[in-house]
Amino acid sequence: MTYDFDAIVVGSGISGGWAAKELTERGMRVLMIERGRMIEHQSGYENEMKAPWEMEFRGYGDAKLLAEEYPVQSKGTNFDEYTMDHFVNDADHPYQTSADKPFQWRRGYQVGGRSLIWGRQCYRWSDYDFGANARDGHGTDWPVRYADMKPWYDHVESFVGVNGSMEDMPQLPDGIFQPAMPLSAGESLLAKQIAAHYGDRRLIPGRSANLTEAKEGRSACQYRYLCARGCSFGAYFSTQSSTLPAANKTGRLTLLPDTIVAKIETDPRTGKAVAAQCIDANSKETSRHTARMFFLNASSFNSVGLLLRSASDTAPNGLANSSGTLGRYIMDHATAVAGVATIAGLDDHTYYGNRPSNFVIPRFRNLEEAHPDFVRGYSYQGVGIRANWPRGVHMPGVGADFRKTLSEAGEWRILMVAFAESLPRADNRVTLSDKLDKWGLPQLHITLHHGENERALLRDAAAEAKIMLGMLGGKMLISSDEPDLAGSAVHEMGGARMGRDPATSVVNGNSQTHDVPNIFVTDGAAMSSSACQNPSLTYMAFTARAAAFAVEQVKAGLL
Amino acid sequence: MPPVSTPASAPSASVPVASDSAAFNSRDLLVGGSALAALISATPYLSRPIMMHAEDFAPLLDSVSDILLPGSLSTQPGAYLASVIPREWRGLTLSYVKTVSHWLNRHAQGDFLSISFERRFAVLTALDTATFDGAAAETGESDAAMDAETAEAWTILKRALLTSFYTSQKGGSGDLAFNLVPGRWDADIPLAQAPRPLSNDWLAIWFS
Question: What is the pTM of this model?
Answer without folding.
Answer: 0.92
